Amino acid sequence: MTDPRSSAADATRAPMAPQDPASGRNGLYILHDAAIEATARPDGTFAQEIYLDGQRLIDKARYAGGGLDEAILENLRSFDGFRRMVHRIGISVHAHGNEKSPVFFTIHNRGKSGRYESGTRLRFPCPADGSESLLTLEDYDWSPDDEVPGKFAFEFERAGVLATANIIFYLHDGYPVPEPIPEPPVDFGSESYRRMIEKSLLNKGNNKRLKTAIEKAKRGEPVTIAYIGGSITQGAGAVPLSANCYAYRSYELFKRWFVPSGGDSVRFIKAGVGGTPSELGIVRYERDVLRDGTVEPDIVIVEFAVNDADDETKGSCYESLVLKALAGGNKPAVILLFSVFMNDWNLQDRLAPIGWHYQLPMVSVKDAVVEQFRLSKADGNVISKRQFFYDIYHPTNAGHKIMSDCLGWLFEVTDRSAADGEDLSVDKPPLIGNGYVGTRLLDRMNSDGIARIHPGGFQETDAELQMAELDDHSYGTPLFPHNWMHTAESGNLGFKMTIQSRRLILVFKDSGNHDFGTANIWVDGQLKRTADPHQVNWTHCNAVLLYDEEDVREHTVEIAMAEGNEDKRFTILGFGYVP
Questions:
Q1: Facing residues of 93 across strands?
Q2: Are 193 and 185 contacting, i.e. CB atoms less than 8 angstroms apart?
Q3: Residue 152 — φ and ψ, nearest 5°?
Q4: What does DSSP say about strands 146-156 and 121-126: parallel, antiparallel, or unpaired?
């Protein structure tokens, strides 16, 4: 069986312009030899989902299909434009190994009257042998309520199936598509690749702690490597996610280089959660990384460089999280990792000064890849954006490998360097703020003795939660399961909590389900904010700041459904409080 780590999942070759086999119509790739994996979904299916709403479909067409005219791409902003331009869709799936189970391809449009409820849904079988199935749009009845293409999915009979997939839009006449420029495979063994990786080392930092962890590993002593961050750390874009995400690959590099036999002495902790910033990371650090005091990491990699744009504390939660990790019982090495989006953006300029301030090792994927993205192959390009990015946010397997190799370069440089004589110092004034170091999680399970809570109409427990593949798991773990939920039958009574604290973060559930509604939050009798679970419109954890004060005092927090939303759901996932 082909090793999935070296398969077409790395997306290292460019497509040729396809043509409809029956009519010769121009074709536009949306997926080209893309690795997919059947993962368990909340509805009980095992699927790889490809989200298309917002800018996503346009970006997939732009980068998978080559240099397209913007007027053509504009048609993909609405379902009406999509139907005008696309004649039919070609779908092919080639399952890896001896997998013979049937595959179903599904389309789900977003509706005008109900974003997730009213759009057209189609589902039809495809062979898993790589042959192409054709879906002609005029053969199907489409709802007049269809607003935009929302989601494609490949459904399998069981979890864990790996496959390679293509999706091609065959276009009506009058929509010319240029032939993409072929790209050679990425040469991961080349000198130019190594030079690119070396550029990622933003700062070696004080190496005493990382050297200590490496020496422990060499002696066969227990070592724990932990990762906390957003969806890139969770493994988004990697297939299979559990084995090809940068976190697991760099953990395996560490074991291979430094552990004398087998690597069983090295423990892997992964705590990446999609769509979440360090404002949530500081709330869940003790639970998801320290596992409520049962784990003491030796190395902690922190990756929030593309998630913290909306951090209300503008870096204070990030610095507090770094300090919280540094204060661990094992005196762990804390490594700051700066990932990057397809538009070359991250928050390195805001966050790297914290690393300089505390003499921390820092690895910048942005510094490694962005400059060479702009070069031709003749001038030194090593990997293109099409090869590095799975979508505009997340790396492909090739991108995850590069991230892993960037961390590996830090390990290598540290190993061959002389150890610093003294440990780094955290006993200094913070650069941005350290007010959230003491943040603790409060939820339904541990609230006794911390706060006085009257749940009112928030009596139920929500089980439909954001899921994250923790550690090396291929399955998702529900986040914040000990919550309080208001339902349509709950009535008008609000949630009331009285607590002694300096700072308080509320974590509530975002959702695309129209059964969820808006809630008002009062602090000490004053309306503090209105929480709308549809601002993001997909199931995930939303952390918002309720108050930030220097002194501990008693506060009363009340949460009630907004007027007109009394028959809606709203889920309080938990709180982060600073005593």
A1: 165
A2: no
A3: -105, 155
A4: unpaired
Nearest to 296 by CA among 325, 336, 253, 255: 325
- CB of 153 closer than 8 Å to CB of 47: yes
Spatial separation of the C-alpha atoms in residues 74 and 392, rounded to whole Å: 17
Give yes or no for a contact between 341 and 365, defined as CB atoms under 8 angstroms apart.
no
Taking residues 524-546, what's their average pLDDT?
A: 94
User: What is the share, in percent, of the chain residues with pLDDT greater than 70?
Assistant: 95
Cβ neighbours of residue 40 under 8 Å, at least 6 residues apart? 46, 159, 475, 476
How many C-beta atoms surround the C-beta of residue 473 within 10 A?
A: 12
- Can you read off the two tokens belonging to residue 377? 């192959």
pTM score over 0.85: yes
CA distance to 148, 233, 409, 435, per residue, from 250 (Å) = 39, 11, 10, 32
| Distance separating alpha carbons of residues 434 and 502, to the nearest angstrom | 13
DSSP state at residue 302: E
Pairing of strands 266-272, 223-229: parallel
Alpha-carbon distance 513 to 205, whole Å?
46
pLDDT higher than threshold 80 for residue 15: no
Return the structure tokens found at 219: 């002696």
SS3 content of the chain, % helix, strand, coil (to 5): 25, 30, 45
Residue of 338, 354, 280, 297 whose CA lies nearest to 542: 280
Report residue 498 as tokens. 């009285």
Tell me: pLDDT of 4 over 60: no
For residue 467, the 8-state DSSP code is E
Structure tokens, 252: 């395996």
Q: List, in order, residues 6 or more apart from 379 with CB less than 8 Å away.
A: none
Residue type, 147: E
Kindly give the interhelix angle for 365-373 and 191-198, rounded to the nearest 10 degrees.
Answer: 130
Contact 369, 343 (CB under 8 A): no
pLDDT at 468 over 60: yes
Q: How far apart are CA 53 and CA 150, in angstroms?
A: 5
What pairing do the DSSP bridges indicate for beta strands 519-523 and 526-531? antiparallel
